[in-house]
């Protein structure tokens, strides 16, 4: 059996959707006039699309119901078989897509969603009962969005009555919230105890954020470096999210948001102690730490290997720190209010004051007269 007979024998046993290689076509000059007949049955996946011969032609029905006429396998050449197989595959993919689009249902996106427009444009792909995207009833989500409608209506009525009584004028809390900024930042849990972290919280409370970072850099405490990283993150969050401390940054071209102030020489206004010594007043947008407190976290579990093969379990504590950042504008206002309150307290009792109402300075051991 020569090579040409081997190729013809392989082609005679080929399936309708299998095509010979290019080398086989070149070796067989009689392939164009050869009538191929399939000696093997169709695959189980292709039984539904088995052609039915009608007067020398095959009629194939797809899932969508469309019928396409094509020549029978007895009159097909190798290249025509390839075209038929590609056409059947394209029709099968098209039918699957059509079936997916028919089963497509609009999800729970609101009309203001970013992807709402894409769903509205595809209204013609599904049945009419599933295409009420723009006409959906908002009461279906009322239980999740408004679980206590009666309490909400009472609260709204109370707020309206309060606003009418005040004639639209904001109270003190509203004025402070509109004019002053603050930012609360809570850190992750450090592997330390509250007894060790509380002194660091007391140390940085009341200091400007730059000076607190500087103090943590040179602290001998092990957890001080983690506190320093958290302070830098809290400062950057306050600048980016709340717009705090922007005036001091814009005035100094060399200052950057992400730069560590302790890595370079601080300017006079960046360190509170230097500002007091050199007579620089703090800018009203400078950030300082108004409050700092610790947060008790979970307890871990670590093995403690002892003598004679014994193992004890240790439970080290985890603790976090939270800081409340405010601007110097808030501290100035609170200081003025405190002084005014003390003055009202003194003057309200009609007490006789033998000295002028000013601070006593330059006290010395000996008299000067």
List the strand order in the largest sheet. Answer: 1-2-3
**DSSP summary: helix tally:** 13
**CATH fold-level name of one domain:** Ribosomal Protein L22, Chain A
Order of helices and strands: HHEEEHHHHHEHHHHHEEEEH
Any guess at the CATH architecture of one domain? Answer: Alpha-Beta Complex
Content of β-strand = 5-15%
What value does the average pLDDT take?
A: 75
Largest sheet: 3 strands, antiparallel
Broad structural category: alpha+beta
End-to-end CA span: 138 Å
The Rg value, from CA coordinates, equals 41 Å
Number of distinct beta strands: 8
What name goes with the CATH superfamily of one domain?
Answer: Ribosomal protein L22/L17
What global shape is seen? elongated
Enumerate the spans where pLDDT stays under 50 for 5 or more consecutive residues: 21-56
The first-level CATH class of one domain is given as Alpha Beta
* Helix proportion range: 40-55%
Keywords: Ribonucleoprotein, Ribosomal protein
Protein name: Ribosomal protein L22
GO molecular function: structural constituent of ribosome
Family: Belongs to the universal ribosomal protein uL22 family.
């Amino acid at each position: 059996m020569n090579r040409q007979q081997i190729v013809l024998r392989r082609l005679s046993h080929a399936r309708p959707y299998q095509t010979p290689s290019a080398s086989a076509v070149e070796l067989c000059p009689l392939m164009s006039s050869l009538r191929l007949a399939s000696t093997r049955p169709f695959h189980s996946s292709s039984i539904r699309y088995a052609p039915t011969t009608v007067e020398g032609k095959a009629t194939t029905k797809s899932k969508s119901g469309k019928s396409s006429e094509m020549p029978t396998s007895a009159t097909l050449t190798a290249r025509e078989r390839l075209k038929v197989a590609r056409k059947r595959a394209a029709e099968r993919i098209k039918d699957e897509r059509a079936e997916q689009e028919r089963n497509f249902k609009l999800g729970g996106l609101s009309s203001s969603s970013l992807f709402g427009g894409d769903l509205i444009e595809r209204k013609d792909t599904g049945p009419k009962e599933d295409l009420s995207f723009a006409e959906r009833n908002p009461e279906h989500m009322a239980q999740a969005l408004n679980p206590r409608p009666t309490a909400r209506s009472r609260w709204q009525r109370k707020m309206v009555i309060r606003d009418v009584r005040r004639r639209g004028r904001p109270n003190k809390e509203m004025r402070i919230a509109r004019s002053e900024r603050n930012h609360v930042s809570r850190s992750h849990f450090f592997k330390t105890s509250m007894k060790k972290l509380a002194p660091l919280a007391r140390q940085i409370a009341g200091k400007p954020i730059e000076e607190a970072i500087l103090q943590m850099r040179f602290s001998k405490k092990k957890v001080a470096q983690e506190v320093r990283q958290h302070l830098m993150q809290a400062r950057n969050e306050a600048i980016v999210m709340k717009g705090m401390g922007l005036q001091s940054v814009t005035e100094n071209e060399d200052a950057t948001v992400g730069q560590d102030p302790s890595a370079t020489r601080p300017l006079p206004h960046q360190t509170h102690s230097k500002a007091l010594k050199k007579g620089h007043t703090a800018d009203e947008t400078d950030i300082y730490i108004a409050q700092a407190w610790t947060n008790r976290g979970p307890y871990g579990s670590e093995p403690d290997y002892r003598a004679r093969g014994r193992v004890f379990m240790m439970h080290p504590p985890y603790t976090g720190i939270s800081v409340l950042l405010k601007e110097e504008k808030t501290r100035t206002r609170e200081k003025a209010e405190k002084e005014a309150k003390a003055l009202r307290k003194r003057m309200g009792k009609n007490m006789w004051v033998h000295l002028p109402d000013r601070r006593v300075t330059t006290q010395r051991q000996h008299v000067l007269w």
